[in-house]
Amino acid sequence: SYELTQPPSVSVSPGQTARITCSGDALPKQYAYWYQQKPGQAPVLVIYKDSERPSGIPERFSGSSSGTTVTLTISGVQAEDEADYYCQSADSSGTHLVFGGGTKLTVL
Amino acid sequence: EVQLVESGGGVVQPGGSLRLSCAASGFTFDDYAMHWVRQAPGKGLEWVSLISGDGGSTYYADSVKGRFTISRDNSKNSLYLQMNSLRTEDTALYYCAKDMGEQWLVLDIWGQGTMVTVSS
Protein backbone atom coordinates (compact mmCIF):
# COMPACT_ATOMS: atom_id res chain seq x y z
CA SER A 1 0.00 0.00 0.00
CA TYR A 2 1.04 3.59 -0.62
CA GLU A 3 2.93 5.36 2.19
CA LEU A 4 3.95 8.89 3.06
CA THR A 5 7.06 9.28 5.21
CA GLN A 6 7.58 12.09 7.73
CA PRO A 7 10.26 12.59 10.41
CA PRO A 8 8.83 11.74 13.86
CA SER A 9 9.98 14.99 15.42
CA VAL A 10 11.36 18.44 14.67
CA SER A 11 12.54 20.96 17.25
CA VAL A 12 13.13 24.69 16.81
CA SER A 13 13.53 27.77 18.98
CA PRO A 14 10.95 30.56 18.90
CA GLY A 15 11.45 32.87 15.94
CA GLN A 16 13.36 30.30 13.91
CA THR A 17 12.15 28.49 10.80
CA ALA A 18 10.76 24.96 11.03
CA ARG A 19 10.73 22.68 8.02
CA ILE A 20 8.80 19.41 8.00
CA THR A 21 9.22 17.06 5.05
CA CYS A 22 6.96 14.40 3.62
CA SER A 23 8.07 11.88 0.99
CA GLY A 24 6.02 9.64 -1.27
CA ASP A 25 6.34 8.14 -4.73
CA ALA A 26 3.02 9.52 -6.00
CA LEU A 27 3.62 13.09 -4.82
CA PRO A 28 4.77 14.29 -8.27
CA LYS A 29 1.29 13.34 -9.54
CA GLN A 30 -0.94 14.06 -6.54
CA TYR A 31 -1.35 17.21 -4.47
CA ALA A 32 -0.21 17.24 -0.86
CA TYR A 33 -2.05 18.72 2.08
CA TRP A 34 -0.96 19.56 5.64
CA TYR A 35 -2.90 19.45 8.90
CA GLN A 36 -2.06 20.79 12.34
CA GLN A 37 -3.35 18.91 15.38
CA LYS A 38 -2.98 20.22 18.90
CA PRO A 39 -3.55 17.93 21.93
CA GLY A 40 -7.19 17.08 22.46
CA GLN A 41 -8.30 18.89 19.31
CA ALA A 42 -9.39 17.90 15.83
CA PRO A 43 -6.95 18.45 12.95
CA VAL A 44 -6.97 21.78 11.13
CA LEU A 45 -6.08 22.18 7.45
CA VAL A 46 -3.13 24.58 7.08
CA ILE A 47 -1.97 23.97 3.48
CA TYR A 48 -3.81 22.55 0.46
CA LYS A 49 -2.76 21.83 -3.12
CA ASP A 50 0.92 21.77 -2.08
CA SER A 51 1.20 25.48 -1.30
CA GLU A 52 -2.20 27.15 -0.93
CA ARG A 53 -3.18 28.57 2.45
CA PRO A 54 -6.81 28.44 3.63
CA SER A 55 -8.35 31.64 4.90
CA GLY A 56 -7.48 32.29 8.52
CA ILE A 57 -4.15 30.46 8.44
CA PRO A 58 -1.22 32.78 9.29
CA GLU A 59 1.16 33.74 6.48
CA ARG A 60 4.07 32.16 8.35
CA PHE A 61 2.76 28.77 7.15
CA SER A 62 3.84 27.86 3.62
CA GLY A 63 4.20 24.74 1.51
CA SER A 64 6.40 23.66 -1.37
CA SER A 65 6.94 20.63 -3.56
CA SER A 66 9.96 19.14 -5.30
CA GLY A 67 9.76 15.74 -6.92
CA THR A 68 8.75 13.09 -4.43
CA THR A 69 9.08 15.41 -1.41
CA VAL A 70 6.82 18.14 -0.12
CA THR A 71 7.75 20.52 2.68
CA LEU A 72 5.78 22.48 5.23
CA THR A 73 7.67 25.59 6.33
CA ILE A 74 6.76 27.62 9.39
CA SER A 75 8.64 30.92 9.46
CA GLY A 76 9.11 32.78 12.73
CA VAL A 77 7.82 29.86 14.80
CA GLN A 78 5.70 30.80 17.80
CA ALA A 79 4.98 28.78 20.94
CA GLU A 80 1.39 28.26 19.75
CA ASP A 81 2.68 26.36 16.71
CA GLU A 82 3.75 23.43 18.88
CA ALA A 83 1.60 20.57 17.60
CA ASP A 84 1.56 17.40 15.53
CA TYR A 85 1.64 17.97 11.77
CA TYR A 86 0.36 15.45 9.23
CA CYS A 87 0.84 15.42 5.49
CA GLN A 88 -1.87 13.83 3.37
CA SER A 89 -2.24 12.91 -0.26
CA ALA A 90 -4.03 10.36 -2.42
CA ASP A 91 -2.93 7.12 -3.99
CA SER A 92 -2.43 6.81 -7.74
CA SER A 93 -6.10 5.85 -8.26
CA GLY A 94 -7.18 9.14 -6.70
CA THR A 95 -9.80 7.41 -4.57
CA HIS A 96 -7.95 6.58 -1.35
CA LEU A 97 -6.50 9.14 1.00
CA VAL A 98 -3.19 8.51 2.71
CA PHE A 99 -1.74 10.24 5.77
CA GLY A 100 1.88 10.45 6.78
CA GLY A 101 2.80 9.18 10.22
CA GLY A 102 2.90 12.68 11.68
CA THR A 103 5.66 14.97 12.94
CA LYS A 104 5.71 16.39 16.45
CA LEU A 105 6.93 19.99 16.34
CA THR A 106 8.50 21.09 19.60
CA VAL A 107 9.15 24.77 20.24
CA LEU A 108 12.09 24.92 22.60
CA GLU B 1 -21.16 28.46 10.93
CA VAL B 2 -20.00 25.25 9.30
CA GLN B 3 -20.25 22.44 11.83
CA LEU B 4 -19.97 18.67 12.03
CA VAL B 5 -21.13 16.79 15.12
CA GLU B 6 -20.48 13.07 15.49
CA SER B 7 -22.38 10.68 17.74
CA GLY B 8 -22.91 6.97 18.29
CA GLY B 9 -19.58 5.94 19.75
CA GLY B 10 -19.30 3.64 22.73
CA VAL B 11 -17.93 0.38 24.08
CA VAL B 12 -18.61 -2.79 22.10
CA GLN B 13 -17.33 -6.36 22.28
CA PRO B 14 -15.18 -7.86 19.53
CA GLY B 15 -17.40 -9.08 16.71
CA GLY B 16 -20.08 -6.55 17.56
CA SER B 17 -21.57 -3.70 15.58
CA LEU B 18 -21.94 0.05 15.97
CA ARG B 19 -23.42 2.82 13.84
CA LEU B 20 -21.85 6.27 13.89
CA SER B 21 -23.67 9.40 12.79
CA CYS B 22 -22.49 12.86 11.78
CA ALA B 23 -24.85 15.85 11.66
CA ALA B 24 -23.76 18.60 9.28
CA SER B 25 -24.83 22.23 9.25
CA GLY B 26 -23.81 25.55 7.74
CA PHE B 27 -23.15 24.37 4.16
CA THR B 28 -24.94 22.75 1.22
CA PHE B 29 -24.40 19.17 2.29
CA ASP B 30 -24.97 17.37 -1.01
CA ASP B 31 -22.42 19.57 -2.83
CA TYR B 32 -19.55 17.91 -1.00
CA ALA B 33 -18.01 14.49 -0.57
CA MET B 34 -17.64 13.37 3.03
CA HIS B 35 -15.11 11.21 4.84
CA TRP B 36 -14.52 9.23 8.02
CA VAL B 37 -11.03 9.36 9.53
CA ARG B 38 -9.95 7.60 12.73
CA GLN B 39 -7.16 8.01 15.26
CA ALA B 40 -6.20 5.24 17.66
CA PRO B 41 -5.14 6.43 21.14
CA GLY B 42 -1.71 8.03 20.92
CA LYS B 43 -1.39 7.22 17.20
CA GLY B 44 -1.64 9.04 13.89
CA LEU B 45 -4.52 9.70 11.54
CA GLU B 46 -5.94 6.90 9.38
CA TRP B 47 -8.39 7.52 6.55
CA VAL B 48 -11.36 5.12 6.71
CA SER B 49 -13.88 5.90 3.99
CA LEU B 50 -15.20 8.38 1.43
CA ILE B 51 -18.65 8.95 -0.06
CA SER B 52 -19.49 11.25 -2.97
CA GLY B 53 -21.97 14.08 -2.65
CA ASP B 54 -24.82 12.13 -4.22
CA GLY B 55 -23.90 8.96 -2.35
CA GLY B 56 -23.33 7.05 -5.57
CA SER B 57 -19.62 6.38 -5.05
CA THR B 58 -17.99 4.95 -1.95
CA TYR B 59 -14.41 3.96 -1.16
CA TYR B 60 -12.80 2.22 1.81
CA ALA B 61 -9.41 1.64 3.35
CA ASP B 62 -8.29 -1.96 3.00
CA SER B 63 -8.37 -2.32 6.80
CA VAL B 64 -12.17 -1.87 6.93
CA LYS B 65 -13.35 -2.99 3.50
CA GLY B 66 -16.12 -5.58 3.76
CA ARG B 67 -16.83 -4.71 7.41
CA PHE B 68 -17.74 -1.01 7.35
CA THR B 69 -20.36 0.75 5.23
CA ILE B 70 -20.50 4.49 4.66
CA SER B 71 -23.79 6.15 3.72
CA ARG B 72 -25.48 9.54 3.76
CA ASP B 73 -28.99 10.99 3.89
CA ASN B 74 -28.87 14.33 2.10
CA SER B 75 -32.45 15.13 3.16
CA LYS B 76 -31.24 15.03 6.78
CA ASN B 77 -27.74 16.51 6.20
CA SER B 78 -26.34 13.40 7.84
CA LEU B 79 -23.44 11.02 7.30
CA TYR B 80 -23.24 7.50 8.72
CA LEU B 81 -20.73 4.71 9.28
CA GLN B 82 -22.06 1.21 9.93
CA MET B 83 -19.31 -0.83 11.56
CA ASN B 84 -19.69 -4.61 11.72
CA SER B 85 -17.38 -7.42 12.85
CA LEU B 86 -15.50 -4.97 15.03
CA ARG B 87 -11.97 -5.81 16.15
CA THR B 88 -9.86 -4.50 19.01
CA GLU B 89 -7.71 -2.68 16.46
CA ASP B 90 -10.76 -0.61 15.44
CA THR B 91 -10.56 1.18 18.80
CA ALA B 92 -10.13 4.85 17.93
CA LEU B 93 -11.58 8.33 17.89
CA TYR B 94 -13.65 8.55 14.71
CA TYR B 95 -13.83 11.90 12.95
CA CYS B 96 -16.33 12.98 10.34
CA ALA B 97 -14.74 15.37 7.84
CA LYS B 98 -15.97 17.46 4.92
CA ASP B 99 -14.18 17.38 1.57
CA MET B 100 -13.18 20.74 0.20
CA GLY B 101 -15.09 19.91 -2.99
CA GLU B 102 -16.60 17.02 -4.83
CA GLN B 103 -13.80 14.52 -4.15
CA TRP B 104 -10.92 16.98 -4.03
CA LEU B 105 -9.58 14.55 -1.40
CA VAL B 106 -8.73 17.30 1.06
CA LEU B 107 -10.52 17.75 4.38
CA ASP B 108 -11.29 21.35 5.27
CA ILE B 109 -13.75 20.89 8.15
CA TRP B 110 -13.57 18.26 10.91
CA GLY B 111 -15.89 17.32 13.73
CA GLN B 112 -14.66 16.76 17.26
CA GLY B 113 -14.91 12.99 16.97
CA THR B 114 -16.71 10.13 18.69
CA MET B 115 -14.81 7.43 20.58
CA VAL B 116 -15.21 3.76 19.74
CA THR B 117 -13.75 1.19 22.12
CA VAL B 118 -13.74 -2.48 21.13
CA SER B 119 -13.03 -4.58 24.17
CA SER B 120 -14.21 -7.72 25.90
Descriptive key words:
heterodimer, A: 108 residues, mainly beta, 6-stranded mixed beta sheet, 3-stranded antiparallel beta sheet, globular, B: 120 residues, 7-stranded mixed beta sheet, 4-stranded antiparallel beta sheet
Short description:
The complex is a heterodimer of chains A (108) and B (120). By secondary structure, chain A is an all-beta fold.
Which class of secondary structure composition applies to the elements of chain B? mainly beta
Q: Quick check: average pLDDT of chain B?
A: 97
Distance between the termini of chain B: 40 Å
User: How much is the radius of gyration of chain B in Å?
Assistant: 13 Å
Poorly predicted runs of chain A are: none
- Sheet with most strands of chain A: 6 strands, mixed
Cα separation of the termini of chain A: 36 Å
Over all CA atoms, what is the radius of gyration of chain A?
13 Å
From the helix content, strand content and strand pairing of chain A, which structural class follows?
A: mainly beta
The total of beta strands of chain A comes to 9
Could you estimate the helical fraction of the residues of chain A in percent?
A: under 10%
- The SSE string of chain A, one letter per element, is EEEEEEEEE
Order of secondary-structure elements of chain B: EEEEEEEEEEE
Explain this structure to me?
- The complex is a heterodimer of chains A (108) and B (120).
- By secondary structure, chain A is an all-beta fold.
- Chain A has no helices and 9 strands.
- In chain A, strands 1, 3, 4, 7, 8 and 9 form a 6-stranded mixed beta sheet that branches.
- With 120 residues, chain B is mainly β.
- Chain B contains no helices and 11 strands.
- In chain B, the strands form 2 sheets. In chain B, strands 2, 4, 5, 6, 9, 10 and 11 form a 7-stranded mixed beta sheet that branches. Chain B has a 4-stranded antiparallel beta sheet with strand order 1-3-8-7, with no helix packed on it.
- The mean pLDDT of chain B is 97.
- Chains A and B meet through strand 3, strand 7 and strand 8 of A and strand 5 and strand 10 of B.
